Amino acid sequence: MADFEPIIVAFVCNWCTFTAADLAGTSRLSYPANVRLIRVMCSGMVDPKYVIKALLEGADAVLIGGCWPGDCHYINGNLKARRRVALLKDILKRFGFEEDRLWLRWIAASEGNLFADTIKEMVEKVKALGPSQVKRKLVA
Q1: Residue 11: closest CA among 52, 134, 76
Q2: In DSSP terms, which residues pair with 39 in a beta bridge?
Q3: Is the pLDDT of residue 139 over 90?
Q4: What's the rounded Cα separation, in Å, for the pair 16 and 66?
Q5: What is the mean pLDDT of the chain?
Q6: For 131, which DSSP code?
Q7: Are residues 131 and 4 in contact, defined by beta-carbon separation less than 8 angstroms?
Q8: Over the stretch 26-47, which tens digit does the pLDDT of each residue have?
Q9: Scanning 11, 30, 65, 95, which has the fewest C-beta atoms within 10 Å of its C-beta?
Q10: What is the pLDDT of residues 53-99, one digit of tens each?
Q11: Closest by alpha carbon to 135, among 80, 73, 56?
């Protein structure tokens, strides 16, 4: 398991977290290449089905990145995301997924360093968890 490299699917808000990822890249901040970014217009638009599908089809963890509360371009989309993630964590736990396989983080457009640090931290935590065993049981 020492050579395990997790795959992380990140649903990132167009206005904040995606811009922070872009800033991290243009600032030449390094972070692990384990993350696959999917740009969405708002974190509140991430349907729980997308998260479940990602986890069942190969992702070891999912990150949902949005604007800080009060900064959402759609007024309360990030708050909807927070409610959905709380419910989704409860559902995923019932199927045996560890809670640390789903993260919700607020990362503003100017926080490229926070984006890079979040990815580094998430990769380390998921490496410690190891490959998802539930995924193999449910899909097989």
Answers
A1: 52
A2: 12
A3: no
A4: 6
A5: 94
A6: S
A7: yes
A8: 999 999 999 999 999 999 999 9
A9: 30
A10: 999 999 999 999 999 999 999 999 999 999 999 999 999 999 899 99
A11: 56
Cα–Cα distances (Å) from 35 to 5, 77, 83, 120, 125, in that order, read 10, 23, 24, 10, 14
Q: Which pLDDT value is given to residue 125?
A: 96
48-77 in b/e burial notation, b at 16+ Cβ within 10 A?
Answer: eebbbebbeeebbbbbbbbbeeeebeeeeb
Structure tokens at 9: 């699917």
Q: How far is CA 39 from the centre of its chain?
A: 11
**Total Cβ atoms within 10 A of residue 134:** 15
| Long-range contacts of 128-134, Cβ-Cβ distance < 8 Å, separation of 24 or more | 129/60, 129/61, 129/98, 129/100, 129/101, 130/1, 130/4, 131/1, 131/4, 131/6, 131/60, 132/55, 132/60, 132/97, 132/101, 133/96, 134/95, 134/96, 134/97
Q: 111-134 pLDDT, tens per residue? A: 999 999 999 999 999 999 999 887
The residue assigned the tokens 């935590």 is 125
The predicted model scores a pTM of: 0.93
3-state secondary structure of 13: strand
